[in-house]
Design a protein that fits this description.
The complex is a heterodimer of chains A (95) and B (256). Chain A is an all-alpha fold. In chain A, 69% of the residues lie in helices and 0% in strands. Chain A is elongated. The two termini of chain A are 24 Å apart. With 256 residues, chain B is an all-alpha fold. A two-stranded antiparallel sheet of chain B has the order 1-2. In chain B, β1 (85-86) and β2 (92-93) form a beta hairpin. Chain B is globular and about 60 Å long. The model of chain B is unreliable at 17-25 and 248-256 (pLDDT under 50). The chains are: A mainly alpha (95), B mainly alpha (256).
């Protein structure tokens, strides 16, 4: 199997791993694991109050999604730029 | 075909970014560690930050050509920690993306790059927090990278293949990050019955189990990026002595 075929197969597995949970838990909330950790903390220590608030919170879920999407987009932009640049450089090398 | 794979990678990353659900996730939230514990983890992390700064300075000075690859390692952690992926437990978590950089540049460098990602998320996304930055840096940018780097070296020493070494490094580095988070929370919040151990099991059930399939995903994604690097960036990988140099293949191997 060529490297690119292997990569393709690996990508497919990653996609399946992200999709399967939706099939297993049709009614789950899919909340963040840290929210559940915060619940667990209040169970263990009902009197515990977080002593600091975040400096700034995204005003809505939509804004938060936008910021997370931007983070992913900026990151994957840099990653893909580098990979494309390297590929182009490699192709222009004298063989 | 390779070009198609690259495009697919881009497409997949974007698709997952869109799929990511708006929810708080992972890392210890702002104010959720008592003051003394928060301070303790800052003190623990400080030497790693100093070590990391020195390691980065050294890399950039001795190999200015590697700056772009350094950018890639940082950007990779940036993307992966933005992807909150659903998991089999019915909640979401995100990978850390620090394994790639740890394998390429050593674990210390990632304490800085991972720390930058955490500061960004604490300030702009209310994800993690400034008071818990020390603890979160320790789990994601110290323990994760050191586990990843150690495993990578071990597997390579045992003559395991490169993809296997990278897979185990990235996935177990990811998983150990969340085991560490569980331990940090358990130490700060021991259960009334059963103490630290009972708490640890409780937090592990939340973090580590959710993280399991994500760790596998991170392992595979990192292998994909590594395959592409091995195809297009042979020179850089040789400079980092990850691939043996063509001319002195035997020499550089035996020197390590």
């Amino acid at each position: 199997m060529s490297t690119s075929q292997k990569n393709f197969l690996l990508l497919l597995i990653v996609m399946l791993l992200a999709a399967v949970p939706f099939l297993i838990h049709r009614k789950a909330e899919f909340a963040g694991a840290d929210d559940r950790a915060a619940e667990a903390i209040t169970q263990i220590r009902p009197d515990y109050k977080p002593w600091l608030k975040p400096v700034w919170e995204p005003p809505s879920g939509e804004v938060e999604t936008f910021l997370f999407a931007s983070q992913a987009a900026i990151g994957s932009g840099i990653v893909c730029y580098f990979l494309g640049y390297s590929k182009g450089k490699k192709q222009r090398e004298p063989k | 075909m390779i070009r198609r794979t690259t495009w697919l990678t881009l497409y997949l990353l974007l698709a997952m970014a869109v799929l990511a659900r708006p929810a708080f996730a992972m890392h210890i939230a702002e104010g959720f560690l008592p003051f003394n514990w928060a301070a303790f983890w800052f003190i623990v992390v400080l030497p790693f930050w100093i070590w990391g700064l020195r390691s980065l300075q050294h890399t950039v000075k001795s190999n200015p050509g590697l700056k772009m690859l350094l950018g890639l390692a940082g950007a990779y952690a940036f993307v992966l920690s933005a992807l909150k992926i659903p998991s089999v437990t019915g909640s979401c978590s995100h990978p850390t993306g620090v394994g790639l950089g740890a394998v390429l540049f050593g674990p210390a460098a990632m304490s800085i790059l991972g720390g930058i990602v955490l500061i960004f998320q604490a300030l702009l996304l209310a994800h993690g927090g400034l008071s818990t930055l020390g603890a979160n840096t320790f789990s994601m940018a110290v323990v994760g990278p050191f586990v990843a780097y150690g495993l990578y070296r071990l597997v390579r020493k045992l003559k395991g293949s490169m993809p296997l070494a990278v897979f185990l490094a990235a996935s177990l580095g990811d998983l150990m990050t969340y085991v560490t988070t569980s331990l940090q929370l358990a130490l700060a919040f021991p259960a009334q019955a059963g103490g630290v151990v009972a708490s640890m099991l409780k937090f592990m059930g939340i973090f580590a189990v959710t993280q399991l399939p994500l760790a596998i995903s991170e392992g595979f994604l990192t292998v994909i990026v590594f395959n592409l690097l091995a195809a297009y960036n042979k020179n850089e990988l040789e400079e980092l002595s990850i691939l043996p140099e063509k001319t002195a293949a035997e020499g550089s191997r035996s020197r390590q």
